[in-house]
Amino acid sequence: MLYLLLGLFAGFLAGLLGVGGGLIIVPVLVFIFTAQHFPEASMLHLALGTSLGSIMFTSVASLRAHHAHAAVNWQVVRTITPGIVTGTLLGSVLAAHLSTHFLKVFFVIFLFYVGTQMLLNIKPKPTHQLPGLGGMFAAGNVIGGVSSLVGIGGGTLSVPFMTWCNVKMHQAIGTSAAIGFPIAVAGAVGYVANGLAVKDLPQYSLGFVYLPALAGVVLASMMTAPWGARLAHKLPVTKLKKIFAVLLYTLGVKMAWSLF
C-alpha cells in the first residue's frame, strides 16, 4: 500500500513539474526500507536503482502527454542521448563503489540545491544557444552522471540547461520528460548489473532494484503521470514548485538527521 501511495504522488509530480518523481521516491523508499530492516550497506543503492527503474515507465507516460501538446524537441533528445547513456552508466558504476553514507550526503545536498532553486524560482538567463554534438555529448554526460547518483530522471538539470540555451520553458519541461527515458533505462540497467554480485540483498531483488517496490510505484505512477502533465498547462506551476521546495527541505532534513 505504501508503494502504491508513493507511486500516485511521485507520478503526478513527474508529469506536473517536469522534475521527475525520483526526488520523492528515493528518500521515501529509504524510510520504508529502514523500517523493513534492509541491509544498511545496500539500502540507498536499492532506492536509487528502484527509482530509476520506475522512471522508465513514468517517463513514457509523461512524454506522451507532453508530445501531444507539441512540447518535446526531439532534435535535442536525439543529440543529447549518447552522452546521457554513457554518463548514466558510468554514474551507476561509481555509485556501486560508494558507501551508503556518502550517497546519502550527496543526495541531501542535492535535495537542498533543488529546493532552493525552486523556492527562489532561480532560472538561468537564456544567453546561449544549444551547443554542437560535442557540447551536447558533454552536457549529457554531466546530466546522466549526476542523475544516476541521485536516482532521478534529470529534469532538475536538463530543464535549466535547456532554458540557458534559449529553449522555451514549456518545451524544456516536455523535452526533459523525454530525456528521462534514456537516463532511466541506462541507470536501471547499470544498477541491476552492478548489484547482481552483491550478497545479502533482500528477497525479490534484481541487482539493486527491489521488485515489489518497483511494481507498486509503477502501477500507481503510470496512472497519475499523464494527469500531472495535462495539468502542467493549466495550473500555476511556479507557486506549486515553492510548495514542492518546502517538501524537499523537509525530506532533506529528515534524511540528514538519519546520518547522525
Automatic annotation (TrEMBL):
Coiled-coil residue spans: none
Cellular component, GO annotation: plasma membrane
Keywords of this entry: Cell membrane, Membrane, Transmembrane, Transmembrane helix
Membrane topology: Multi-pass membrane protein
Organism: Sulfurirhabdus autotrophica
InterPro entries tied to this protein: TM_pro_TauE-like
TM stretches of this protein: 6-32, 44-63, 75-95, 102-122, 142-165, 177-197, 209-228
Keyword Plastid: no
Family the entry assigns: Belongs to the 4-toluene sulfonate uptake permease (TSUP) (TC 2.A.102) family.
Subcellular location: Cell membrane; Membrane
Annotated protein name in UniProt: Probable membrane transporter protein
Alphabetical list of Pfam families matching this protein: TauE
Principal location class: membrane
